[in-house]
Amino acid sequence: MIEYVIPNNPDDRILQKAADQLSAGNLVILPTDTNWIVVADPFSKKGVDNLYSFKGEDKSHHFSLLCDTIKRASESAYIDDNAYKILRNKIPGPFTFIFESRKAMNKALKASKTDHQIGVRFSPSPLVIKLIDFYEKPLVSTNIPTEKIEVAEGEELYGFQIEEALGHMTLVLDPGELEFLGQSTIIDFSSGVMELVREGAGDPKIFGL
């Protein structure tokens, strides 16, 4: 099932359809600034189970938490005043930030329960931001495994291809023409000191790293 959307102004009807899928423990596919992703409600056991099953990963594997604001992220992760001051003028962007996870997230995700960490993304994608704001919850996310869809190396992946391969099992939101930045830069805040874990599309120099 595919829905074509205007990314800056998605129809509330479509957002409601996506929200209904998420609340029922189903998956939704949509693009961010970095790639196509699959999302679920992190507080839905069925949704989390479906996401791990889709990805073919053990539940000890971390997935990212998509948030629209620092305030919403702070409900799932410990973001101290220093981290807040650093982040507030540098997000959204192609970064994943690792924080100590809160009790609710440790309960929801086995990976966080194990090491008390969660990776948080603030994507600049208008569609992602509007969906999270509409749903009023963060979304746990992962990229689409390449083996799920037959596409030549270097070939751009389109929404209709995803719908043909996966539309029978999930909702695909397609905003049309896309340009991806590639994998995000990962910065770890969990120890209280910033540490560059992986350099990707985001420039770590803006954080002094």
Structural notes for this entry:
The chain is globular. It contains eight helices and eleven strands. It has a single domain (2-150, 182-201), classed as Alpha-Beta Complex (DHBP synthase), CATH 3.90.870. It is an alpha/beta fold. The longest helix has 12 residues, at 12-23. Strands 1, 2, 3, 4, 5, 6, 7, 8, 9, 10 and 11 form an eleven-stranded mixed beta sheet that branches. The protein has helices spanning 12-23, 45-55, 70-73, 81-87, 103-108, 110-115, 126-135, 159-166; strands at 2-4, 28-31, 36-40, 64-66, 77-78, 95-101, 117-121, 139-143, 171-174, 185-188, 195-198. The model has no long low-confidence stretch (mean pLDDT 92). α1 (12-23) crosses α7 (126-135). The N and C termini lie far apart (43 Å). Helices cover 31% and strands 22% of the residues.
**DSSP helix count?**
8
* CATH homologous superfamily title: DHBP synthase
Task: Characterize the biggest β-sheet.
Answer: 11 strands, mixed
Tell me what the CATH architecture is.
Alpha-Beta Complex
The string of secondary-structure elements, in order, is EHEEHEHEHEHHEHEHEEE
Poorly predicted parts: none
Percent strand equals 15-25%
* CATH class placement: Alpha Beta
> Total number of β-strand segments?
11
Number of domains: 1
Q: Helical residue percent?
A: 25-40%
Mean pLDDT: 92
Q: From the helix content, strand content and strand pairing, which structural class follows?
A: alpha/beta
- Rg over CA atoms: 16 Å
**CATH third-tier fold name:** DHBP synthase
What gross morphology would you assign?
Answer: globular
